[in-house]
Amino acid sequence: MPRSLNRQGRRHPLASLVLILVGLFVAGGAYAAVTSTATASDAPISATQIADGKALFAANCASCHGLAGEGSKAGPSVIGVGALSVEFQVGSGRMPMSGSGPQAEKKPVQFTQPEIDAMAAWVATLAPGPGVPDAATLTGGDASNGAELFRINCAMCHNVAGAGGALTEGKWAPHLNDIDPVHVYAAMVTGPQNMPVFSDLNISAEEKNDIIAYLKFLDDNPSVGGFDLGSLGPVSEGLFVWIVALGGLVAITVWLSAKSN
Question: Is residue 111 assigned to a domain?
Answer without folding.
Answer: yes
